[in-house]
Amino acid sequence: MYQSAIEIARLIRGRLLSPVDVMRETIGRIEAANPVINAFSETCFDRAMDDARSLEAAIAAGKDPGPLAGVPLGVKDLEDAAGLVTSYGCTAFRNNRVQSDSIQVARLKKAGAIVVGKTNVPEFGFTGFTKNRLFGITRNPWNPERTSGGSSGGSAAAVASGMIPMATGSDAGGSIRIPACYCGCFGIKPSFGRIPHGPQATLFMTRTWTLGPVTRTVEDAALYMDCAAGYDPADPESLPSPSSSFLEALKRMPKNLKIGFNPTLGYARVQSDVMAPAEKALSVFREMGHRVEISNMVFPDAADAWSDLMALELYGQLKDRFESIRPELGRTLVASIDKTRKLTVEDMLSHQRIRSLLQKRLAEFFSSHDILLTPSMPTEAFEAKGPPPGEIEGVPIPLFGAVAFTYPFNITGNPAATVPTGLTSSGLPAGIQIVAPHYRDDLVLRLAAAYEQAAPWVGIWPDLKGASQVKPPLP
Fold this sequence. Notes:
By secondary structure, the protein is of the alpha+beta class. The protein has one domain (5-454): Amidase signature (AS) domain (Amidase signature (AS) enzymes), CATH 3.90.1300. The chain is built from 15 helices and 17 strands. The strands form 4 sheets. The protein has an 11-stranded mixed sheet with strand order 1-3-2-8-10-9-16-17-13-11-12. The chain has a two-stranded antiparallel ribbon with strand order 4-5. Strands 6-7 form a two-stranded antiparallel sheet.
Protein backbone atom coordinates (compact mmCIF):
# COMPACT_ATOMS: atom_id res chain seq x y z
CA MET A 1 0.00 0.00 0.00
CA TYR A 2 1.75 3.13 -1.25
CA GLN A 3 -0.90 5.81 -0.77
CA SER A 4 0.29 8.93 1.00
CA ALA A 5 -0.78 9.65 4.56
CA ILE A 6 -2.60 12.77 3.39
CA GLU A 7 -4.58 10.80 0.81
CA ILE A 8 -5.49 8.07 3.31
CA ALA A 9 -6.68 10.64 5.85
CA ARG A 10 -8.63 12.59 3.21
CA LEU A 11 -10.49 9.49 2.06
CA ILE A 12 -11.23 8.41 5.62
CA ARG A 13 -12.47 11.85 6.64
CA GLY A 14 -14.69 11.90 3.56
CA ARG A 15 -16.09 8.45 4.41
CA LEU A 16 -14.76 7.13 1.10
CA LEU A 17 -12.43 4.71 2.86
CA SER A 18 -12.92 2.75 6.04
CA PRO A 19 -10.17 3.02 8.67
CA VAL A 20 -10.87 -0.64 9.46
CA ASP A 21 -10.17 -1.60 5.84
CA VAL A 22 -7.00 0.50 5.85
CA MET A 23 -5.79 -1.21 9.01
CA ARG A 24 -6.66 -4.65 7.69
CA GLU A 25 -4.65 -4.00 4.53
CA THR A 26 -1.77 -2.55 6.56
CA ILE A 27 -1.61 -5.61 8.79
CA GLY A 28 -1.63 -7.88 5.75
CA ARG A 29 1.22 -5.96 4.16
CA ILE A 30 3.29 -6.05 7.36
CA GLU A 31 2.70 -9.77 7.76
CA ALA A 32 3.87 -10.33 4.18
CA ALA A 33 6.83 -7.96 4.11
CA ASN A 34 8.24 -7.90 7.63
CA PRO A 35 9.61 -11.46 7.58
CA VAL A 36 11.82 -10.35 4.68
CA ILE A 37 12.72 -6.83 5.82
CA ASN A 38 12.50 -7.05 9.65
CA ALA A 39 11.43 -3.43 9.97
CA PHE A 40 9.11 -3.95 12.94
CA SER A 41 10.46 -5.23 16.24
CA GLU A 42 6.99 -5.40 17.83
CA THR A 43 3.44 -5.03 16.54
CA CYS A 44 0.08 -4.37 18.23
CA PHE A 45 -2.41 -5.44 15.58
CA ASP A 46 -5.35 -6.23 17.87
CA ARG A 47 -5.18 -2.83 19.52
CA ALA A 48 -4.69 -1.09 16.17
CA MET A 49 -7.84 -2.78 14.83
CA ASP A 50 -9.74 -1.72 17.95
CA ASP A 51 -8.54 1.86 17.44
CA ALA A 52 -9.62 1.74 13.79
CA ARG A 53 -13.10 0.53 14.76
CA SER A 54 -13.39 3.28 17.38
CA LEU A 55 -12.36 5.86 14.81
CA GLU A 56 -14.91 4.55 12.33
CA ALA A 57 -17.63 4.85 14.96
CA ALA A 58 -16.52 8.37 15.84
CA ILE A 59 -16.68 9.44 12.19
CA ALA A 60 -20.16 7.90 11.86
CA ALA A 61 -21.19 9.95 14.89
CA GLY A 62 -20.01 13.15 13.19
CA LYS A 63 -16.88 13.69 15.27
CA ASP A 64 -13.73 15.24 13.79
CA PRO A 65 -11.23 12.38 13.27
CA GLY A 66 -8.23 14.71 13.01
CA PRO A 67 -5.82 15.59 10.20
CA LEU A 68 -4.12 12.17 10.39
CA ALA A 69 -7.40 10.26 10.56
CA GLY A 70 -6.68 6.54 10.55
CA VAL A 71 -3.12 6.83 9.23
CA PRO A 72 -1.05 3.78 10.31
CA LEU A 73 2.05 4.89 12.21
CA GLY A 74 5.27 3.15 13.16
CA VAL A 75 7.15 4.34 16.25
CA LYS A 76 10.93 4.13 16.39
CA ASP A 77 12.08 1.92 19.24
CA LEU A 78 13.98 4.73 20.94
CA GLU A 79 10.79 6.44 22.12
CA ASP A 80 7.76 5.42 24.09
CA ALA A 81 4.39 4.24 22.81
CA ALA A 82 1.97 3.20 25.54
CA GLY A 83 1.62 -0.54 26.01
CA LEU A 84 4.67 -1.40 23.90
CA VAL A 85 8.25 -2.21 24.82
CA THR A 86 10.89 0.50 24.47
CA SER A 87 13.91 -1.74 24.14
CA TYR A 88 16.38 0.70 22.55
CA GLY A 89 17.53 -2.38 20.61
CA CYS A 90 19.25 -3.59 23.79
CA THR A 91 18.79 -6.93 25.52
CA ALA A 92 18.92 -5.23 28.93
CA PHE A 93 15.64 -3.45 28.10
CA ARG A 94 13.80 -6.33 26.44
CA ASN A 95 11.03 -6.16 29.09
CA ASN A 96 10.78 -2.36 29.33
CA ARG A 97 7.06 -2.15 28.58
CA VAL A 98 5.93 1.46 29.05
CA GLN A 99 2.59 2.88 30.14
CA SER A 100 2.56 6.24 28.38
CA ASP A 101 3.41 7.88 25.07
CA SER A 102 6.23 10.26 24.29
CA ILE A 103 5.09 13.81 23.58
CA GLN A 104 5.60 13.27 19.86
CA VAL A 105 3.62 10.02 19.73
CA ALA A 106 0.82 11.45 21.88
CA ARG A 107 0.43 14.40 19.53
CA LEU A 108 0.36 12.21 16.42
CA LYS A 109 -2.23 9.95 18.02
CA LYS A 110 -4.32 12.95 19.03
CA ALA A 111 -4.26 13.97 15.36
CA GLY A 112 -5.80 10.61 14.45
CA ALA A 113 -2.81 8.40 13.65
CA ILE A 114 -2.98 4.78 14.80
CA VAL A 115 0.17 3.10 16.13
CA VAL A 116 0.76 -0.35 14.62
CA GLY A 117 4.08 -1.18 16.26
CA LYS A 118 7.70 -0.32 17.05
CA THR A 119 10.36 -0.08 14.35
CA ASN A 120 13.79 -1.63 14.76
CA VAL A 121 16.94 0.32 15.69
CA PRO A 122 20.62 -0.33 16.30
CA GLU A 123 21.45 -0.53 19.98
CA PHE A 124 20.62 2.93 21.42
CA GLY A 125 20.71 4.30 17.87
CA PHE A 126 24.48 4.23 18.00
CA THR A 127 25.28 3.21 14.41
CA GLY A 128 24.25 4.14 10.89
CA PHE A 129 23.01 0.64 10.11
CA THR A 130 20.26 -1.26 11.92
CA LYS A 131 21.34 -4.44 13.65
CA ASN A 132 21.05 -5.56 17.26
CA ARG A 133 21.27 -8.76 19.28
CA LEU A 134 17.64 -8.56 20.36
CA PHE A 135 15.83 -8.35 17.01
CA GLY A 136 18.53 -8.86 14.39
CA ILE A 137 19.16 -7.06 11.10
CA THR A 138 16.78 -4.71 9.30
CA ARG A 139 17.19 -4.98 5.53
CA ASN A 140 16.79 -2.60 2.63
CA PRO A 141 13.62 -3.16 0.57
CA TRP A 142 15.52 -2.35 -2.63
CA ASN A 143 17.98 -5.16 -1.94
CA PRO A 144 17.63 -7.22 1.26
CA GLU A 145 21.36 -7.96 1.20
CA ARG A 146 21.97 -4.25 1.88
CA THR A 147 21.33 -2.15 4.97
CA SER A 148 18.34 0.12 5.46
CA GLY A 149 20.65 2.53 7.28
CA GLY A 150 20.22 3.75 10.81
CA SER A 151 19.37 4.54 13.34
CA SER A 152 15.81 5.04 12.03
CA GLY A 153 16.40 2.05 9.77
CA GLY A 154 13.26 0.18 10.75
CA SER A 155 11.16 3.28 10.15
CA ALA A 156 12.58 3.95 6.68
CA ALA A 157 12.38 0.30 5.63
CA ALA A 158 8.75 0.07 6.77
CA VAL A 159 7.82 3.18 4.78
CA ALA A 160 9.76 2.23 1.64
CA SER A 161 8.39 -1.33 1.55
CA GLY A 162 4.77 -0.18 1.67
CA MET A 163 4.01 -1.35 5.20
CA ILE A 164 3.08 2.11 6.52
CA PRO A 165 2.99 5.63 5.07
CA MET A 166 4.88 7.34 7.90
CA ALA A 167 7.00 6.61 10.95
CA THR A 168 8.68 8.52 13.73
CA GLY A 169 12.40 9.09 13.59
CA SER A 170 15.16 10.77 15.54
CA ASP A 171 18.43 12.23 14.34
CA ALA A 172 21.57 12.99 16.33
CA GLY A 173 24.05 12.57 13.49
CA GLY A 174 22.03 11.57 10.45
CA SER A 175 19.69 8.94 11.87
CA ILE A 176 16.69 10.19 9.87
CA ARG A 177 18.54 11.28 6.74
CA ILE A 178 20.80 8.21 6.40
CA PRO A 179 18.03 5.58 6.22
CA ALA A 180 15.68 7.87 4.29
CA CYS A 181 18.38 8.27 1.65
CA TYR A 182 19.32 4.58 1.55
CA CYS A 183 15.65 3.55 1.26
CA GLY A 184 14.54 6.27 -1.19
CA CYS A 185 12.22 8.09 1.24
CA PHE A 186 11.86 11.68 2.34
CA GLY A 187 13.33 12.48 5.74
CA ILE A 188 13.87 15.78 7.52
CA LYS A 189 15.92 16.61 10.59
CA PRO A 190 14.04 19.62 11.95
CA SER A 191 15.61 22.37 13.98
CA PHE A 192 16.58 21.36 17.51
CA GLY A 193 13.52 21.69 19.73
CA ARG A 194 11.01 21.93 16.88
CA ILE A 195 9.37 18.72 18.15
CA PRO A 196 9.64 18.31 21.93
CA HIS A 197 11.56 15.48 23.54
CA GLY A 198 10.39 13.55 26.50
CA PRO A 199 9.22 13.22 29.04
CA GLN A 200 12.76 12.19 30.00
CA ALA A 201 14.67 11.83 33.24
CA THR A 202 17.77 13.69 32.02
CA LEU A 203 17.66 16.62 29.62
CA PHE A 204 19.96 16.52 26.61
CA MET A 205 23.19 18.46 26.94
CA THR A 206 24.43 18.99 23.39
CA ARG A 207 21.43 20.35 21.41
CA THR A 208 22.06 17.85 18.63
CA TRP A 209 19.34 15.21 19.09
CA THR A 210 16.19 15.99 17.11
CA LEU A 211 12.88 14.28 16.39
CA GLY A 212 11.16 14.15 13.02
CA PRO A 213 9.38 12.14 10.33
CA VAL A 214 10.24 9.53 7.74
CA THR A 215 7.63 9.65 4.98
CA ARG A 216 7.06 9.00 1.29
CA THR A 217 6.13 12.57 0.40
CA VAL A 218 7.11 16.04 1.50
CA GLU A 219 3.44 16.93 2.12
CA ASP A 220 3.16 14.04 4.58
CA ALA A 221 6.22 15.28 6.46
CA ALA A 222 4.86 18.83 6.60
CA LEU A 223 1.53 17.59 7.99
CA TYR A 224 3.38 15.41 10.52
CA MET A 225 5.32 18.45 11.71
CA ASP A 226 2.14 20.52 11.95
CA CYS A 227 0.76 17.86 14.28
CA ALA A 228 3.90 17.28 16.37
CA ALA A 229 5.70 20.64 16.61
CA GLY A 230 5.31 23.21 19.36
CA TYR A 231 6.38 23.95 22.91
CA ASP A 232 5.82 21.53 25.77
CA PRO A 233 6.85 22.35 29.37
CA ALA A 234 8.36 18.89 29.77
CA ASP A 235 11.05 20.01 27.33
CA PRO A 236 12.24 23.50 28.30
CA GLU A 237 14.27 23.75 25.08
CA SER A 238 11.32 23.05 22.81
CA LEU A 239 10.46 25.83 20.39
CA PRO A 240 7.19 27.79 20.41
CA SER A 241 4.44 26.59 18.11
CA PRO A 242 5.10 27.73 14.54
CA SER A 243 3.25 30.90 13.57
CA SER A 244 1.96 29.25 10.41
CA SER A 245 1.34 25.77 9.04
CA PHE A 246 4.20 23.90 7.40
CA LEU A 247 1.70 22.24 5.10
CA GLU A 248 0.25 25.58 4.03
CA ALA A 249 3.78 26.88 3.44
CA LEU A 250 4.22 24.32 0.65
CA LYS A 251 1.75 26.32 -1.45
CA ARG A 252 4.31 29.16 -1.61
CA MET A 253 6.96 27.84 -3.93
CA PRO A 254 10.34 29.50 -3.31
CA LYS A 255 11.60 31.71 -6.13
CA ASN A 256 15.02 32.86 -7.30
CA LEU A 257 17.00 31.30 -4.48
CA LYS A 258 20.80 31.50 -4.35
CA ILE A 259 21.84 27.88 -3.92
CA GLY A 260 25.34 26.56 -3.32
CA PHE A 261 26.15 22.90 -3.99
CA ASN A 262 29.17 21.75 -2.02
CA PRO A 263 30.21 18.29 -3.25
CA THR A 264 32.65 17.45 -0.43
CA LEU A 265 32.41 20.10 2.35
CA GLY A 266 36.17 20.15 1.90
CA TYR A 267 36.90 16.72 3.36
CA ALA A 268 34.51 14.03 2.09
CA ARG A 269 34.83 11.48 -0.69
CA VAL A 270 31.75 10.38 -2.66
CA GLN A 271 30.99 7.28 -4.71
CA SER A 272 30.85 8.35 -8.36
CA ASP A 273 27.39 6.93 -9.13
CA VAL A 274 26.06 8.59 -5.96
CA MET A 275 27.53 11.94 -6.99
CA ALA A 276 26.19 11.73 -10.55
CA PRO A 277 22.46 11.80 -9.60
CA ALA A 278 23.13 14.68 -7.21
CA GLU A 279 24.83 16.66 -9.97
CA LYS A 280 21.94 15.93 -12.34
CA ALA A 281 19.53 17.20 -9.70
CA LEU A 282 21.21 20.60 -9.90
CA SER A 283 19.75 21.10 -13.36
CA VAL A 284 16.28 20.55 -11.88
CA PHE A 285 16.84 23.36 -9.39
CA ARG A 286 18.12 25.59 -12.20
CA GLU A 287 15.07 24.81 -14.33
CA MET A 288 12.92 25.92 -11.39
CA GLY A 289 14.53 29.35 -11.73
CA HIS A 290 17.06 29.21 -8.91
CA ARG A 291 20.66 30.35 -9.19
CA VAL A 292 22.84 27.31 -8.51
CA GLU A 293 26.60 27.43 -8.19
CA ILE A 294 29.30 25.06 -7.05
CA SER A 295 30.68 26.00 -3.65
CA ASN A 296 34.17 24.83 -2.73
CA MET A 297 34.08 26.35 0.74
CA VAL A 298 36.09 24.18 3.14
CA PHE A 299 34.29 23.35 6.36
CA PRO A 300 36.08 22.00 9.44
CA ASP A 301 35.47 18.29 9.97
CA ALA A 302 33.82 18.04 13.38
CA ALA A 303 33.68 14.22 13.38
CA ASP A 304 35.73 13.67 16.53
CA ALA A 305 33.90 16.37 18.47
CA TRP A 306 30.53 15.04 17.33
CA SER A 307 31.46 11.44 18.20
CA ASP A 308 32.58 12.31 21.71
CA LEU A 309 29.57 14.50 22.34
CA MET A 310 27.16 11.79 21.19
CA ALA A 311 28.81 9.21 23.43
CA LEU A 312 28.69 11.70 26.31
CA GLU A 313 24.99 12.27 25.64
CA LEU A 314 24.31 8.54 25.71
CA TYR A 315 26.31 8.09 28.90
CA GLY A 316 24.26 10.87 30.46
CA GLN A 317 21.10 8.90 29.72
CA LEU A 318 22.56 5.58 30.94
CA LYS A 319 24.81 6.66 33.81
CA ASP A 320 22.80 5.18 36.66
CA ARG A 321 22.61 1.77 34.97
CA PHE A 322 25.73 1.72 32.83
CA GLU A 323 27.91 -0.55 34.97
CA SER A 324 25.10 -3.01 35.68
CA ILE A 325 24.20 -3.45 32.00
CA ARG A 326 27.75 -3.17 30.61
CA PRO A 327 27.95 -6.93 29.83
CA GLU A 328 24.85 -6.65 27.62
CA LEU A 329 26.08 -3.68 25.59
CA GLY A 330 27.97 -3.83 22.31
CA ARG A 331 31.74 -3.54 22.56
CA THR A 332 31.99 -0.49 20.30
CA LEU A 333 29.36 1.36 22.29
CA VAL A 334 31.08 0.52 25.60
CA ALA A 335 34.47 1.57 24.24
CA SER A 336 33.07 4.89 23.06
CA ILE A 337 31.43 5.62 26.41
CA ASP A 338 34.56 4.63 28.33
CA LYS A 339 36.62 6.97 26.13
CA THR A 340 34.16 9.79 26.67
CA ARG A 341 34.22 9.35 30.44
CA LYS A 342 37.91 10.23 30.32
CA LEU A 343 37.43 13.53 28.53
CA THR A 344 39.05 16.50 30.23
CA VAL A 345 37.90 20.08 30.39
CA GLU A 346 40.54 20.88 27.77
CA ASP A 347 39.08 18.19 25.49
CA MET A 348 35.62 19.68 25.82
CA LEU A 349 36.92 23.19 25.14
CA SER A 350 38.67 21.89 22.03
CA HIS A 351 35.43 20.31 20.83
CA GLN A 352 33.60 23.55 21.49
CA ARG A 353 36.13 25.49 19.43
CA ILE A 354 35.53 23.16 16.48
CA ARG A 355 31.77 23.60 16.87
CA SER A 356 32.20 27.37 16.97
CA LEU A 357 34.39 27.36 13.86
CA LEU A 358 31.84 25.23 12.01
CA GLN A 359 29.05 27.61 13.02
CA LYS A 360 31.11 30.59 11.88
CA ARG A 361 31.86 29.01 8.51
CA LEU A 362 28.21 28.13 7.95
CA ALA A 363 27.13 31.65 8.90
CA GLU A 364 29.59 32.94 6.32
CA PHE A 365 28.08 30.64 3.70
CA PHE A 366 24.51 31.71 4.46
CA SER A 367 25.46 35.38 4.32
CA SER A 368 25.57 34.98 0.53
CA HIS A 369 23.35 31.91 -0.08
CA ASP A 370 19.82 30.88 0.77
CA ILE A 371 20.36 27.11 0.61
CA LEU A 372 23.24 24.66 0.91
CA LEU A 373 23.05 21.42 -1.06
CA THR A 374 25.29 18.39 -0.56
CA PRO A 375 25.05 14.72 -1.45
CA SER A 376 23.00 13.09 1.29
CA MET A 377 25.37 10.16 1.68
CA PRO A 378 28.87 9.42 0.36
CA THR A 379 27.91 5.86 -0.68
CA GLU A 380 24.97 3.68 -1.53
CA ALA A 381 23.63 1.29 1.09
CA PHE A 382 26.31 -1.20 2.15
CA GLU A 383 26.07 -4.79 3.38
CA ALA A 384 23.13 -5.34 5.73
CA LYS A 385 25.18 -6.73 8.60
CA GLY A 386 27.80 -3.97 8.29
CA PRO A 387 30.31 -2.62 8.89
CA PRO A 388 30.19 0.71 7.03
CA PRO A 389 32.69 1.00 4.19
CA GLY A 390 36.28 1.89 5.02
CA GLU A 391 37.02 3.01 1.47
CA ILE A 392 35.29 4.51 -1.54
CA GLU A 393 36.36 3.23 -4.95
CA GLY A 394 39.68 2.05 -3.55
CA VAL A 395 40.49 5.19 -1.57
CA PRO A 396 40.46 4.81 2.24
CA ILE A 397 38.07 7.02 4.20
CA PRO A 398 38.10 7.83 7.93
CA LEU A 399 35.85 6.15 10.48
CA PHE A 400 32.98 8.57 10.01
CA GLY A 401 33.60 9.15 6.31
CA ALA A 402 30.53 7.06 5.47
CA VAL A 403 28.27 9.69 7.10
CA ALA A 404 30.36 12.74 6.28
CA PHE A 405 27.48 15.01 5.21
CA THR A 406 24.97 14.51 8.00
CA TYR A 407 26.59 15.02 11.41
CA PRO A 408 27.84 18.60 10.76
CA PHE A 409 24.28 19.89 10.79
CA ASN A 410 23.50 18.22 14.10
CA ILE A 411 26.45 20.10 15.53
CA THR A 412 25.17 23.38 14.08
CA GLY A 413 21.43 22.74 14.51
CA ASN A 414 20.43 23.71 10.97
CA PRO A 415 17.34 22.02 9.53
CA ALA A 416 18.27 19.51 6.83
CA ALA A 417 16.41 17.02 4.66
CA THR A 418 17.18 14.34 2.09
CA VAL A 419 15.26 13.93 -1.16
CA PRO A 420 15.71 11.04 -3.63
CA THR A 421 17.64 11.89 -6.79
CA GLY A 422 17.76 8.55 -8.59
CA LEU A 423 19.39 5.13 -8.47
CA THR A 424 23.00 4.02 -8.55
CA SER A 425 24.31 1.49 -11.05
CA SER A 426 23.37 -1.20 -8.49
CA GLY A 427 19.75 -0.02 -8.48
CA LEU A 428 19.97 1.53 -5.00
CA PRO A 429 18.64 4.97 -4.03
CA ALA A 430 20.80 8.08 -3.88
CA GLY A 431 19.83 11.47 -2.54
CA ILE A 432 20.65 15.13 -2.17
CA GLN A 433 20.61 17.01 1.14
CA ILE A 434 18.89 20.39 1.50
CA VAL A 435 20.19 22.58 4.35
CA ALA A 436 18.71 25.95 5.32
CA PRO A 437 19.61 28.69 7.83
CA HIS A 438 18.62 28.24 11.45
CA TYR A 439 14.90 27.67 12.09
CA ARG A 440 13.99 27.80 8.39
CA ASP A 441 12.39 24.36 8.42
CA ASP A 442 9.70 25.87 6.21
CA LEU A 443 12.24 26.73 3.50
CA VAL A 444 13.67 23.20 3.52
CA LEU A 445 10.19 21.75 3.12
CA ARG A 446 9.16 24.23 0.42
CA LEU A 447 12.24 23.61 -1.71
CA ALA A 448 11.94 19.84 -1.19
CA ALA A 449 8.30 19.98 -2.29
CA ALA A 450 9.19 22.01 -5.36
CA TYR A 451 11.86 19.48 -6.28
CA GLU A 452 9.43 16.62 -5.68
CA GLN A 453 7.00 18.18 -8.16
CA ALA A 454 9.71 18.78 -10.74
CA ALA A 455 11.37 15.37 -10.36
CA PRO A 456 8.76 13.12 -8.74
CA TRP A 457 9.87 9.98 -6.96
CA VAL A 458 6.40 8.97 -5.76
CA GLY A 459 5.42 5.72 -7.47
CA ILE A 460 9.00 4.50 -7.75
CA TRP A 461 9.22 1.94 -4.98
CA PRO A 462 10.95 -1.42 -4.60
CA ASP A 463 9.41 -4.82 -4.59
CA LEU A 464 10.63 -7.28 -2.01
CA LYS A 465 13.16 -8.72 -4.44
CA GLY A 466 14.87 -5.37 -4.81
CA ALA A 467 13.62 -4.53 -8.32
CA SER A 468 12.01 -1.17 -9.06
CA GLN A 469 8.30 -1.36 -9.84
CA VAL A 470 8.63 1.54 -12.29
CA LYS A 471 11.13 1.34 -15.13
CA PRO A 472 12.02 4.99 -15.91
CA PRO A 473 14.81 6.22 -13.61
CA LEU A 474 14.48 9.41 -11.63
CA PRO A 475 16.12 12.50 -13.14
